């Protein structure tokens, strides 16, 4: 499958190149999503302004559970694969957890209760764009108000990213992970 829109080509405007240099690991080419957005400096800037990959109120593992589950529910193999490849090992995901993030869910036995609540949050937001009172109370037992806001923003941002990657039909990154088979 080829992308529906061509990527911008280097050389990029200075502000875009600087953002790419800050974002990408040394020696790695920019992601197709980023170079596609680089077609419009305004939209590129807005996208990067919404990023939540900095040190916030969540651990790396918590953040990556939400990103991976949200993108999997949206069937964005592109974004799921980028995050599993770049952050999966650092987040400590084992093979059962990687499979669960892509094909399973909150009921899988490979998660501790706090992580199940994060998965339930993603599943509830995806299905109903809402969080019921019981799940909210469960999450609030372990997360501050600020962390709760970050969780909601993270799930919403990566739903938007999934819309982009799916609708643009971005080819998978060569070094990205693939959804495990059924």
From TrEMBL:
InterPro entries: AhpD-like, CMD-like
Keywords annotated in UniProt: Oxidoreductase, Peroxidase
Lineage top rank: taxon: Bacteria
A UniProt-annotated Pfam family: CMD
Domain Carboxymuconolactone decarboxylase-like per the UniProt entry, residue ranges: 48-114
GO MF entries: peroxiredoxin activity
Name of the molecule in the record: Alkylhydroperoxidase family enzyme
């Amino acid at each position: 499958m080829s992308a529906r829109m061509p990527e911008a080509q280097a050389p990029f405007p200075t502000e875009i190149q600087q953002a790419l240099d800050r974002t990408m690991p040394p020696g790695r080419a920019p992601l197709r999503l980023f170079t596609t957005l680089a077609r419009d400096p305004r939209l590129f800037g807005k996208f990067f302004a919404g990023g939540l990959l900095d040190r916030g109120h969540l651990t790396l593992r918590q953040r990556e559970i939400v990103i991976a589950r949200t993108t999997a529910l949206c069937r964005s193999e592109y974004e799921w694969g980028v995050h599993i490849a770049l952050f999966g090992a650092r987040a400590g995901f084992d093979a059962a957890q990687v499979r669960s993030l892509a094909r399973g869910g909150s009921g899988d036995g490979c998660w501790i209760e706090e992580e199940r609540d994060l998965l339930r949050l993603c599943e509830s937001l995806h299905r109903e764009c809402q969080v019921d009172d019981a799940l909210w109370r469960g999450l609030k037992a372990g997360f501050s108000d600020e962390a709760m806001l970050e969780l909601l923003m993270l799930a919403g941002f990566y739903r938007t990213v999934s819309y982009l990657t799916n609708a643009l039909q971005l080819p998978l990154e060569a070094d990205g992970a693939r959804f495990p088979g059924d």
